[in-house]
Each structure stands twice: as structure tokens, then as C-alpha cells.
Design a protein that fits this description.
This protein is mainly beta. The chain has helices at residues 81-84, 186-189, 196-200, 267-280, and strands spanning 11-16, 19-25, 30-33, 39-50, 60-66, 76-77, 113-114, 118-122, 125-129, 139-141, 146-150, 156-160, 165-170, 208-210, 218-226, 246-253, 258-263. It contains 4 helices and 17 strands. The longest helix is centred in the C-terminal third of the chain and has 14 residues, at 267-280. The chain is elongated and about 70 Å long.
Length: 281
């Protein structure tokens, strides 16, 4: 069982949407097991000071956060994030110990990643704090705490809401970002009929997409190198050509690593590579 980092008497800040509330815990956090065996930390606190319109100093408020989905809980810090900045605010995210991935990291894994992000969810949807570009983009949940951020033609990011990390896939000019030669199976890519975009690491037509959403720790990404001949037709159907759509695929995991490199795949090959990717993660 995870151990909570907070205790009665602690003073911490909840910071979200430019509102900072200093609270003092008046109960020790209590772990509750809810339906479906989810684990939920619950405590009461008194508001000490705040610039929020929703609470006042002296109010007693209740907090709760799920171990299974901490990204949807309160965003807690030892200091006011809006005064000292995220890096100096001493985030308590989540407010309990979690398992650490003990697998050795490949060289350069973290160099490609944006870290220290905070994702919040409410009636307005999911928002991001901690990066000036990501804060302005649309965010779509794609399963298992993973997020698809931005547009298919760029800028486009892939994020893990549990770890607060993101990886950029495309820049604003539809160019691939952060992909190394090892992320491409160049031998298999010799077979593609339309290699221009992949050789230039540039996305045209439909942009980058997902063949499936996230499942079992992995997601298959899809890159259209050439559209179906109907792409060239006008609204009356004139101009259509006999071209077949050509796509290549890669598989990415929850640590935002490419575990199966970009390559052409038919249905059977794609299913086999998905099985192989699951074994790797």
C-alpha cells in the first residue's frame, strides 16, 4: 500500500487556474477502498488564505485523490506556485508514494521529453499547466491516462498525465520532432512507393493519427505518406486518380518511447508488432 506524504497540521497550497489557496490539514489523510477496489485518499482542511472566489478563509474543505488517477485530483504544492514558479513550489504530486519504473532507461530517453507538467480536468475539459505552448492546445484523452495534445498537422504532442511528461511529435510546420534514425526501420521503408515525406520527416495530407487509442501500455501511430486517389477529386468527382492510400506505422509506449519503429505494415504485420510491443513494455 502506498504511504501518504501528508499529515495533520501540514500547510500546503492548491494551485489551479491562477487561484492559490493555502490550507492546513485538520485530519490525517485516510485511505479508503471504494467500489472496484480503487484507493482513495481523503482528508479535511481549513482554508488559511486564498484568492479564490469559491472559498473563504476559515472554511473547512474536504479533499480527495485517487491512487489510480491522481492526475484528476487537486494540484498541491508546499509553496505558492504562482509566486515562486513550478520548479520552486515543491509539488506534492501525487501526495502518496508510487511505484518507480525500475527498467533501465535507454540513453537519451528523457532528453526528448517535456517534464513537470500538470494536467487538470473539470467541466471545461482537460487543461495543462507548465508549458506555454501546451497550455493553449486542445487536449484529448486516449486511454490509460495518455493524452493527445494539439492538431494532426501540428503542433502535436503525446503526453502521460500520470508522470506529467510529454513528447512532441510535430512542430507548427508539420515537421517531425525528436525522432532519431533508430525510430525508423529504413530497410523496410525502402519498400514504400512514396518516400518523399518520410525522407524529409515532413507530414502532408492527413497528418499524424492513431490506428488505435492507448491499450495495454501501447499505442499505434499512423502516418499517411500518400492519399487515396479520391483526394484529388473535386466536389463533382472529377480529377480522381487510381492511387492507393499508403501509410506507415510505429508503436509508442506510456514512457513515450518508440518501441516499434516506423515501417509499412499490413494487418497481420501490425497485429504481430502490437503483440511484440506489449512484450517489450
Amino acid at each position: 500500500m502506498a504511504a501518504c506524504k501528508l499529515k495533520k497540521g501540514d500547510r500546503i497550497y492548491e494551485c489551479r487556474y491562477r487561484e492559490a489557496t493555502l490550507i492546513e490539514l485538520i485530519t490525517d489523510p485516510e485511505l479508503r477502498v471504494q467500489g472496484g477496489a480503487s484507493h482513495y485518499w481523503h482528508w479535511k482542511a481549513k482554508v488559511i488564505e486564498t484568492n479564490s472566489r469559491n472559498v473563504n478563509p476559515g472554511d473547512v474543505v474536504e479533499f480527495g485523490i485517487s491512487e489510480e488517477a491522481p492526475q484528476y485530483g487537486p494540484k498541491l504544492f508546499r509553496k505558492n506556485m504562482y509566486e515562486v514558479g513550478y520548479e520552486n513550489a515543491e509539488p506534492v504530486l501525487p501526495p502518496f508514494d508510487t511505484k518507480v519504473d525500475e527498467r533501465p532507461k535507454e540513453a537519451g530517453d528523457d532528453a526528448k521529453l517535456i517534464t513537470g507538467l500538470i494536467f487538470c480536468s473539470d467541466e471545461r475539459g482537460i487543461t495543462c499547466q507548465g508549458h506555454p505552448v501546451l497550455e493553449k492546445l486542445s487536449i484529448h484523452p486516449i486511454g490509460e491516462g495518455m493524452l493527445w495534445i494539439g492538431e494532426s498537422r501540428g503542433p502535436l504532442f503525446f503526453a502521460n498525465s500520470h508522470t506529467g511528461k510529454a513528447r512532441q511529435l510535430l512542430d507548427e510546420n508539420s515537421n517531425l520532432v525528436g525522432f532519431e534514425d533508430g525510430d525508423f526501420d529504413w530497410e523496410k521503408l525502402k519498400a514504400v512507393e512514396h518516400p518523399y515525406d518520410v525522407n524529409h520527416k515532413h507530414v502532408d495530407y492527413g497528418g499524424l493519427g492513431r490506428y488505435w487509442d492507448f491499450s495495454d501500455g501501447i499505442c499505434c501511430l499512423c502516418w499517411m505518406l500518400h492519399p487515396d486517389g479520391r483526394y484529388y477529386a473535386d466536389e463533382d468527382g472529377f480529377g480522381m486518380e487510381d492511387d492507393d492510400e499508403e501509410n506507415i506505422y510505429c508503436v509508442i509506449d506510456s514512457n513515450l518511447r518508440i518501441v516499434i519503429p516506423w515501417q509499412p505494415m499490413n494487418d497481420e504485420e501490425r497485429a504481430a508488432n502490437m503483440r511484440k510491443a506489449r512484450e517489450k513494455v
